[in-house]
Amino acid sequence: MLKLFRVSMALSRKAGLWVGLILMWLGVNLAPAWAASPGDGAVLFETYCAGCHPKGGNIIRRRKTLKLKSLQRDGYDTLAPVINLITQGQNNMPGFADQLNDTQIETVAQFVLEQASNNWK
């Protein structure tokens, strides 16, 4: 009986170790963007926006970039309209209200405006 108990404990430790390693791997490699802190505008932008807007550009509509001159021309050079655009989308750009919460949307909007002010450097 004691031998069976020891074998059982050894298997439990190994199983616990594997479960822990798997959970750690998932946490590192599959960390969802919603887990990003409010200061992680760059992470959120990279996850949700950079596919179409690399370095503030626009691969779909070249004239609709995230560069300061373009944002000013189109009336997106303040926080409120950028938040609205990210939330609801417009034309070819989808809205992200289903994927991002209000804080994350505001964080991305602030990041975009900051980067535009710094010429996306």
Automatic annotation (TrEMBL):
UniProt GO MF annotations: electron transfer activity; heme binding; iron ion binding
Keyword Cell wall biogenesis/degradation belongs to the record: no
Places the protein is found: Cellular thylakoid lumen
UniProt keywords, alphabetically: Electron transport, Heme, Iron, Metal-binding, Thylakoid, Transport
Keyword Magnesium: no
Residue stretches making up the Cytochrome c domain: 36-116
InterPro entries: Cyt_c-like_dom (IPR009056), Cyt_c-like_dom_sf (IPR036909), Cyt_C6 (IPR023655), Cyt_C_IC (IPR008168)
Main location: other
GO cellular component: plasma membrane-derived thylakoid lumen
Pfam family, one: Cytochrome_CBB3
Membership in a protein family: Belongs to the cytochrome c family. PetJ subfamily.
Protein name as catalogued: Cytochrome c6 PetJ
Gene from which this protein is expressed: petJ
